[in-house]
Amino acid sequence: MSALLQVRGLGVWLRNGDAASHVIDDVSFDIAAGEMLGLVGESGAGKTVLARTLLGLCRPGSVEGVIGSIRFEGHELTTLSEREWRALRGVSIAMVFQDPMTALNPVLTVGEQIEHALTRRRGLSRAEARRRAVELLERVGMPDPTRRARQYPVQLSGGLRQRVVIALALSCEPKLLIADEPTTALDVTVQAQVLDLLDHLRRERGMAVMLISHNLAVVASHADRVAVMYGGRVAEIGPSEALFVTPRMRYTAALLRALPRLHDDRHVRLESIAGRPPDLHNLPAGCRFAARCPHTDARCAIQPPLSGDLETLHRFACWHPAPVGEPTLVVSR
Amino acid sequence: MNEPALLEAKGVQVDFKVRGRRLHAVAGATLSVAHGESVGLVGESGCGKSTFGRALVRLVELTAGEVRFNGTDVTGLKMSGLRALRRCMPIIFQDPISSLNPRRNIGETIAEPLRYAGNRDVNAQVRTATALLERVGLDPAFASRKPHQLSGGQCQRVSIARALAAQPQLLICDEVVSALDVSVQAQIINLLQDLRLERGLALLFISHDLAVVRRIADRVAVMYLGVLCEVADVDSFFAAPAHPYSQALLSAAPDMNSIGKHSRITLKGETPSPFDPPSGCRFRTRCPRAEELCATEAPLLRDIVPGRSVACHFPIRVAP
């Protein structure tokens, strides 16, 4: 089965004064139809730049440089013009951002915003669009959708606003939804509702979802596969369970040991990772985790590790991977 | 426990007036912190947990209630007394960068509580700042830097060092690790743990992150819409919460052990507006166990088993 989205050797440079920073470096992965891929990483790992590149918001011209290939349903996206992107963005590839307030127009009612998308993008009549907008709000679990459609974003709480943003993203029946920290601004009880909604929608409609989050636990409970980014590269990618139970790349393993959990032995000290993530404007030559890694040798400092064959289900970029028999996480079932 | 608590807050109420309407941000909260004890205060945004923390040192004024620190009535203190109190019980805030003076170097910032305490010996100030920087894991050379030259995690260490300068007995930590990345968060959690053991520090650790609170707290207090729902020892709380809200909160918290699984109890709806809280029990509109009594009578926080009090008419049965 060919993938819905196929990213190969993607590299992005951002302007930084007179220099260019290599913020995405040789990123390759696939997303299949109906799949939920989690993308995790700490701040500055390049998650958002990657999302923006997949949405055509970082293109040659707007950034210093883009290399590699992004194929969506077999079509190459990196060579599209802005006009061609507009026909695709929000229609076949939709997005949900972290802050639902700034993603909505404050002077239009939420119903009007969804109606606009439906009349402009899908050519529906006004009356049809109005009916459909209420339907969409209902589908994302908006209580009392008819009344809510007539309200402005300020009249809604954060959780309800995020539902509107999701309804808006779904209005054109996208094949891929890129959700960048969709629940970070929300409370845990509301976060659970929104994540369950995304999961339900992708199962119901076969929509692929790329769920970007700094929160490993959010991703673990919902994604089929997970990619871990560090310093602009994919450090490790694989099925959720394999990656979280037997991480191979030393950064993933260290990150999982640094994470407080609800069922661990709370009297055992957390293993923190010394130092901090690399500065994207001044990246090291070899492995980007080398400066913080206790398992390094001379090679790690000069030669970036290879991430393995793309056909492999569980790939990782590490010269000295953690042995498989060393489970980091004991999963209680 | 016959020893009086270090901090005792009784019936703390804080009202805000917003456009002529009165809002009970904290509607009568009673909580104590013993010497050297760590109490975690959890709840969702807007539940009043930060306001409660601020009211303890009167960064916001109490509308009613009483706060005693070491037996002293905090509500009656004048400004000079309050300054001294805030050195004994400093607050560390969430955003580490904006809580430091951008124009002052790190060394001066850390020594500030000493200057306010009347210590004019510049050499002693420098020595203290150097020792504290080392203690929180920073290079003493940082003393001459400005906050913008530091990362978020480093600034949070500076905030902790500053709070320690006046030898406090209690730290109020308001979401101190929430803005930090996981790898840095673990460093700060470990630092706070070490400091507690070393100095016998008490903590009031305010956070929305249950997994972090579980690591740091001896007791947990859960707040919802300005009232405390449950106060319990940390191990028994996480083993089996007794208040339906605590249970839902714990169930909704994403956890690594739930790979591919979903939360079991998903609450419906969202927190009601604090301008117009439900009658009776404030949680009843979202509570799966609510009955008629809950709408008419607000449940009071009462002990159900030793080491656990719950404000609920129909608490979940737990083993003592």
Polypeptide structure, described:
Chain A is α/β, with parallel strands linked by helices. Chain A contains 11 helices and 11 strands. Chain B is an alpha/beta fold. Chain B contains 10 helices and 12 strands. Chain B has helices spanning 49-56, 79-88, 106-116, 122-135, 152-164, 182-199, 210-216, 234-239, 244-252, 292-296; strands at residues 7-18, 21-33, 38-42, 64-69, 72-73, 91-92, 170-174, 202-207, 219-224, 227-233, 302-305, 308-310. In chain B, the strands form 2 sheets. An 8-stranded mixed sheet of chain B has the order 6-7-8-3-9-10-12-11, with helices on both faces. A 4-stranded antiparallel sheet of chain B has the order 2-1-4-5. In chain B, α3 (106-116) crosses α4, α3 runs parallel beside α5 (152-164) and α4 (122-135) packs across α5 (152-164). Chain B starts with 6 loop residues before the first strand and ends in a 10-residue tail after the last strand. The mean pLDDT of chain B is 90. At the A-B interface, α7, α8, α9 and α10 of A face α6, α7 and α9 of B.
Q: What's the layout of helices and strands?
A:
The complex is a heterodimer of chains A (333) and B (320).
Chain A: E1 5-16, E2 19-31, E3 36-40, H1 47-54, E4 65-72, E5 75-76, H2 82-88, E6 93-96, H3 110-122, H4 126-139, H5 145-149, H6 158-170, E7 176-180, H7 188-205, E8 208-213, H8 216-222, E9 225-230, E10 233-239, H9 240-245, H10 250-258, H11 298-302, E11 315-316
Parallel strand pairs in A: 3-8, 3-9, 6-7, 7-8
Antiparallel strand pairs in A: 1-2, 1-4, 4-5, 9-10, 10-11
Chain B: E1 7-18, E2 21-33, E3 38-42, H1 49-56, E4 64-69, E5 72-73, H2 79-88, E6 91-92, H3 106-116, H4 122-135, H5 152-164, E7 170-174, H6 182-199, E8 202-207, H7 210-216, E9 219-224, E10 227-233, H8 234-239, H9 244-252, H10 292-296, E11 302-305, E12 308-310
